Amino acid sequence: MLGLGDFSIFAAFVLCILSAIACVVYGTINWNKGDQSDQEKKLEEKWDKAEKEMAEKLDI
Predict the structure, then answer these.
(1) How many domains, in total, are found in the chain?
(2) Helix or strand or coil: residue 52?
(3) How far from 55 is each of 5, 41, 47, 52, 58, CA to CA, in Å?
(4) In this predicted structure, what is the pLDDT of residue 50?
(5) Is there a domain that residue 1 lies in?
């Protein structure tokens, strides 16, 4: 068993390798996904516009 003394050590070794593979697969799938949806972008633009309007009102 690759010089491993106990089954639990072998299991931990295999699980580490499987988790690394799972991380690579997850990263590959989600590589080019945007961090915000169109709806979230529109909402953020709306908040920015409202914030600028409030700032202008306070400066006058």
Answers:
(1) 1
(2) helix
(3) 68, 21, 12, 5, 5
(4) 92
(5) no
Residue 2 lies in a domain: no
Give dist(CA 10, CA 55) in Å, integer.
Answer: 62
Does some domain include residue 21? yes
pTM over 0.85: no
Cα dist. 24→4, 7, 10, 53 in Å? 26, 26, 22, 45
pLDDT of residue 58: 86
Q: What are the per-10-residue average pLDDT scores of the chain (60 residues)? A: 78 95 95 79 91 85
DSSP H/E element including 17: helix 7-29
Tokens standing for residue 39: 């709806």
